[in-house]
Amino acid sequence: MVRTQLQRARNGDVTDAMERVAERENRDPEFVREQVADGQAVIPNNTAHDALDPMVIGREFATKVNANIGNSEETSDRDGELEKLHAAVHYGADTVMDLSTGPNLDAIREANVAHSPVPVGTVPLYEAVARVDDPADITHELLLDVIEKQARQGVDYMTIHAGVLMEHLPLTDDRKTGIVSRGGSILAQWMEENAMQNPLYATFEDICEIFAKHDVTFSLGDGLRPGCLADASDDAQFAELDTLGELTRTARDHGVQVMVEGPGHVPMNEIADNVERQQDVCDGAPFYVLGPLVTDIAPGYDHITSAIGAAEAGRAGAAMLCYVTPKEHLGLPEREDVRDGLAAYRIAAHAADVANDRPGARDWDDALSEARYEFDWRRQFSLALDPDRAREYHDQTLPGDNYKDARFCSMCGVDFCSMRIDQDARDADGDMTRLDDDTDLDASAAADVNRPPVGSHDAAGVPDEVEIGGVTFTPAESSTDESAD
Ligand code: SF4
């Protein structure tokens, strides 16, 4: 019988996954075990996901970032999805969620799991919807069938919107934007048409048994999350959160790992209270937040509006940040949107880790600042979060090799370069200190995700090619080391 990471942690076992996580985070394996045993951290790790390099999600560890990928009825095919997976891992996603709702769901999911060194999450309700003519026709049996199949396919965590109850729905009547979660809106419609309780709530203990069998982690969905600032922190959101607290305890009783999803759209001054309330209601279960967006006025720039909220949520204790791309509210993200969204969120996660004084987190900043002051342009590029972008912008105006050790760039120009002027003045005073005690990132206590290059997962378990349904999938090149200069 499979025993979950939670069950084994409670039993006092330090598993291989816990050892690996401890290595990546520079922490004591026993500390990792304690955090998992107490439900304060999760290691999404389906026993059928062979390519996985285990990672941990919890407020005591480096803040993680999730990237959503997936197709829709309108756009993207299987190869396009694998390309997005590769881009997500390359640009530093710690987990990916396959939110496909279009054709070839099984093949895309199996290819993603086979090729992903990071945990893969899904929302099984989407497949259930795809298998019926009318969402109201979804049955308990169909939901459990889909969930069991996806668990067998190796999905590491699933969003289960079990906290949206019939009695919560009237609380959304006065909202400006109603129910904006896809899962939440589908379930609300189902409950109204069938006059029955949420089927995911009704079958929750059956789902727990499936999850325990395959060690799938719950990501308890927030189907009533606010979709605009005006709806943030309202009665509907907090009524659902109370139910999520109850479900957290039920899942743990079954030995299943749990994290809890959070809003959405929240004014900056309410974010810390939201995080603290979730931690209290859900007994410290890792909080996995979408953004939140701190203003509603900037479609086209919502990777920025939400990364501001994500940084504040991370500082306040959120464990994982679900990225938002510039296409949010506007269209399905493509590869370049994935890159921009991940850059924004890696910045937010790292800023939170620096603010929370995570071990070694600031070392990366210090190393880059030293390279900057020394006019070591090549090192500055290689340490940059997105080395290609940094080099590209620099070289747009000063492309020649001779400018790679120039004591200025085109921003201020040679005469007004303040760092050169400052260095010259200190040289003249005789008190110029050359930075010969450079920060040694190799010796840093920082977690892997807090050191360059981002996207440095161990891809050793990713197979060269996989045949699924008669189609051979060949992964794009390895995700490791490409962002290093
Ligand atoms: S020119 Fe300005 S931006 Fe460029 S290195 Fe000097 S101080 Fe920095």
UniProtKB/TrEMBL annotation:
GO terms for biological process: thiamine biosynthetic process; thiamine diphosphate biosynthetic process. The keyword Zinc applies. Substrate binds at residues 68, 97, 126, 161, 181-183, 222-225, 261, 288. The keyword 4Fe-4S applies. It holds the Pfam family ThiC_Rad_SAM. Its EC number is 4.1.99.17. Catalyzes the synthesis of the hydroxymethylpyrimidine phosphate (HMP-P) moiety of thiamine from aminoimidazole ribotide (AIR) in a radical S-adenosyl-L-methionine (SAM)-dependent reaction. This is Phosphomethylpyrimidine synthase.
